[in-house]
Design brief:
Chain lengths: 312, 160, 411
């Protein structure tokens, strides 16, 4: 019981993911700044931002639906945390595992996007409603490629369990290379899920102020931002578990270190993407996702299908 | 040297029978003309359509005492500027719009309406410029008799 | 089920707007079906203020119409006054004026490049181009003592001379900037997301550009080959060679290319000026009272043609001063460009005309927070009010000034 509580609240639960999330945000912002020839924030900046926001007054707009407005940030954090328990970090066993947990994790990771939509929609201001609408529209664009690219290795490994996937690939390491195109596609789709440039359309500051989060302030906004940071970490961990499952049998310490390296590598790729391109328009994004990324993900899926037949 | 400018001056004088001393060539690329308000429409159209003054730079409004003046600064692509000045009586300062030919004149003419109290016939409906909606009527800031403390402390409503 | 129209007001305060203006958009989904523009938020009554101040005071006032185009307005105004007074500015003065004008153009275009990058979510471009902008601002600080608002002009010429040791510094900076600009041109032509966001956006055909009276790079990107520096030369432009950059894209991408091309031309002009700077005086003495007369002066500001009209009546104060900034011409074109466009394109289309609303508008309405009473305050009343307010806090400015003077004198 005590161990379960420790797992949920400290490691690999709330405190760990929160701390890792803040660190990931720092690393992202620092890399972004260095690539732009700037100095960037100090290491404690994300923590300072969180504390400052929490200390400020929450203003709930008059016309907003108060219950949903306040509930959404909490649901966002809890669903992301819950999904993290099923993602293996070192070794091929996650904290909890069962057959089909991959589907549950993907579902739980969709919930935050829905909370952004609902929070924005029920804020009842023009900017947040446009942002909320864009959130959902963007969801329809990146979800399919993301799912397909993650399902490809799952199908190759013949299991719907994340731990099972890790186990399979660590015993057949050369198949990892086969899924690298899927890895690239998954990173692009992840940019859409995390709403980072070029896909930060729902939160385009210069167009719709802050999108779905326009009316949020104080503790609620702090929670939403924490949810976004956690999503970064959990998303990167998911990709590391599915596409880079090597070196899992060197014991917990080395395994954990390797896990950190993999996640930071993925975060580095995300920061690089953020720096070198401009923001796309929603119609361009949908067009790109459906005409380029989705077909490629499907091809990867087919390739894995064929490979599976060959192996058998 | 000022061959082209003199040619334009001649054409205006001959075509409209305007007194020659009312049209001056100030220097290269600058011609100033005083036009009677009644003739203005046809002189303007002639200059724009036949003489090639296709650019409207701006319209300046002036308070000249008993009259209000308007100078239309039009230019050729080659750089020559023709400045057409008209005067209308202050108690009935009505001029016709040129915004059909130059949509950009809309803003310039609204300035004349707001700041000098001119009336521009034919101006399409639209927001005023540059004064706010709640500005008290009858106050024309660019008129010489208007002092900035004339406005006093009055209730004002803001722009939409 | 038909989509409902949503009315979205952008402004007067909005993250995409650097200055206050109000755009009322009617949206169907993401498409804009209608748009009206409302200006006047920055109106400061400058034309009226000019009539009540002397020509020298007006020179300082007109310079402060805008921060980025300060030299444009100052030069345009002074050219008109010099023409009325019949003053012949010495060659060296004209060359220095033109040098600062071109440096201001470089500064303005680099600033625009960064702003455009920011509007489309390309912050990296913003950071790089503003880092390079520092180079040109340093040069301007070396020449004039200030990074913006240079105060170089005086009626009859310029106030400060270029010393021989400044010239190599200018040339080195221009060399670096030219290399950086070549890099931006490369980015502009090769970066896919940039091209995707800027192409086909804010379309303005050549006929519409001429009919609606667009100015500057906005008009030149639609293929209209006009530039006041070549068509109605002023300053030293009559003796310098440069190309007028036009483009046929007719959209925001074209405007980007035009501004980048103009940057390269400015470097060419600056080198010509610096290498052939004539010797001699930098100004002639101007009379305090300007004889009766009128003049109209045109200037190619970074944003387009700036037009100033001055009427003198023989006294030391002008009879009438009229300023028409280029943005007033361009903002009326924005409504046309945005029709049937996307909401997402609004920031970049508005930014593409390089709006400077401080130039365009030129009344303070106050709301008393305690009792909600709305007021209109005039400048002398505002000044008195603030002095009274500070003295209630125990701050007496006259005393402070006296102390400051004694401190300076004792040092």
């Amino acid at each position: 019981m005590a161990e379960a509580l420790f797992n949920i609240f400290v490691f690999p639960g709330f405190l760990f993911v929160a701390a890792f999330g803040l660190t990931a945000e720092y690393i992202d912002r620092k890399l972004y700044a260095l690539m732009q020839n700037r100095i960037g924030p100090p290491w404690f900046q994300p923590l300072a931002d969180f504390i400052k926001l929490s200390a400020k007054e929450d203003v709930v707009p008059q016309h907003a639906d108060s219950l949903i407005f306040k509930l959404m940030p909490i649901i966002a954090i809890t669903s992301i945390l819950t999904s993290f328990f099923y993602i293996p970090m070192w070794g091929s066993n996650a904290l909890f595992t069962f057959k089909g947990d991959l589907v549950v994790v993907m579902y739980l990771l969709t919930v935050p996007t829905l909370t952004y939509f609902l929070g924005g929609w029920y804020s009842r201001s023009v900017y947040s409603m446009i942002g909320a609408a864009r959130c959902l529209t963007q969801l329809f664009a990146y979800e399919i490629p993301l799912f397909l690219s993650i399902l490809a290795p799952a199908m190759l490994a013949d299991t719907w369990s994340l731990s099972g996937i890790s186990e399979y690939f660590s015993t057949h390491p050369w198949t990892i290379l086969f899924n690298l195109p899927g890895f690239v596609i998954a990173i692009i789709a992840l940019l859409g899920k995390l709403e980072k440039v070029p896909f930060d359309i729902p939160e385009a500051e210069t167009e719709i102020v802050a999108g779905a989060f326009t009316e949020y302030s104080g503790r609620l906004l702090a929670m939403f931002r924490m949810a976004i940071d956690m999503e970064l970490v959990v998303g990167a961990s998911l990709l590391a578990a599915v596409f880079l499952p090597f070196g899992l049998h060197y014991g917990p310490a080395a395994g954990f270190a390797l896990y950190l390296v993999k996640v930071l590598f993925i975060i580095g790729l995300i920061s690089l993407a953020r720096t070198i391109v401009a923001r796309l328009r929603i119609d361009q994004m949908i067009s790109f996702c459906w005409k380029v990324i989705a077909p490629l993900a499907f091809l990867q899926f087919l390739a894995d299908l064929i490979l599976k037949g060959v192996i058998k | 040297m000022l061959v082209e400018e003199e040619k334009i001056r001649q054409q205006l004088v001959e075509r409209f029978g305007l007194p020659a001393e009312k049209i001056t060539v100030q220097r290269e690329r600058r011609i100033w003309a005083d036009i009677p308000a009644a003739n203005f429409g046809e002189v303007f159209d002639y200059a724009v359509d036949k003489l090639g003054f296709v650019i409207l730079a701006t319209i300046t409004g002036l308070d000249e005492g008993p009259t209000l003046g308007a100078i239309y600064h039009i230019a050729r692509e080659s750089g020559i500027m023709l400045n057409l000045h008209i005067s209308v009586p202050k108690d009935k300062p009505v001029i016709k719009t040129v915004s059909a030919r130059f949509p950009a004149a809309d803003a310039y003419e609204r300035e004349l309406v707001d700041l000098l109290g001119m009336q521009v016939e034919g101006l399409p409906p639209g927001n005023r410029y540059p004064l706010p909606d709640g500005w008290p009527a009858g106050q024309y800031p660019l008129r010489k008799d208007w002092k900035s403390d004339t406005i006093g402390k009055t209730e004002v409503t803001e722009n939409a | 089920m038909p989509e409902r129209d949503v009315k979205l007001t952008i402004g007067p305060q909005h993250p995409m707007l650097k200055e206050p203006e109000s755009f009322l958009l009617t949206l169907r989904g993401e498409k804009i079906t209608d748009m009206t523009v409302r200006l006047g938020y920055n109106h400061r009554g400058i034309e009226k203020a000019c009539e009540q101040r002397t020509y020298i005071q007006d020179m300082y006032l007109v310079e402060r119409v805008c921060g980025i185009c300060s030299h444009s307005h100052s030069t345009c105004f002074i050219q008109a006054v010099e023409e009325i007074a019949g003053l012949q500015v010495p060659k060296r003065g004209l060359y220095i004026r033109t040098l600062v004008a071109e440096l201001e153009r470089v500064h303005s275009h680099l600033l625009w490049l960064g702003v455009a990058g920011h509007e489309i979510g390309f912050d990296t471009l913003l950071m790089y181009s503003w880092r390079d902008r520092e180079l040109v601002m340093d040069i301007l600080a070396i020449i004039s003592g200030n990074r913006v608002n240079y105060g170089m002009n005086t009626i009859g010429g310029v106030k400060r001379d270029i010393t021989p040791d400044q010239i190599p510094q200018i040339l080195t900076a221009i060399d670096t900037l030219e290399e950086r600009t070549k890099y931006y041109i490369q980015v502009g032509t090769e970066e896919i997301t940039l091209r995707e966001r800027l192409s086909g956006v804010g379309k303005l055909s050549k006929e519409d550009a001429m009919r609606l009276g667009a100015a500057g790079p906005t008009m030149r990107a639609s293929g209209v080959n006009r530039d006041t520096r070549r068509d109605d030369p002023y300053g030293a432009y009559g003796e310098l060679t440069f190309d007028v950059i036009t483009d046929d894209h007719c959209d925001v991408y074209g405007r980007t290319l035009v501004r980048l091309g103009e940057l390269m031309q400015s470097y060419k002009l600056i080198r010509q000026i610096v290498r052939s700077l004539p010797a001699g005086p930098i100004a002639v003495k101007a009379p305090r009272k300007i004889p009766a007369g009128q003049a109209i002066s045109r200037y190619e500001a970074p944003r387009g043609e700036d037009v100033h009209y001055v009427k003198a009546n023989g006294s030391d104060k002008p009879e009438r001063v009229k300023l028409r900034a280029p943005t007033l011409a361009n903002v009326q074109v924005v409504a046309h460009m945005l029709k049937d466009g996307y909401l997402a394109d609004t920031p970049i289309v508005i930014a593409a005309i390089d709006p400077c609303f401080s130039c365009t508008d030129r009344a303070i309405a106050t709301t008393n927070l305690d009792d909600g009473r709305k007021d209109r305050m005039v400048w002398p009343a505002l000044r008195t009010y603030s002095i009274e307010w500070y003295s209630k806090q125990g701050i007496n400015f006259t005393e402070l000034n006296r102390k400051l003077r004694t401190m300076r004198e004792s040092n």
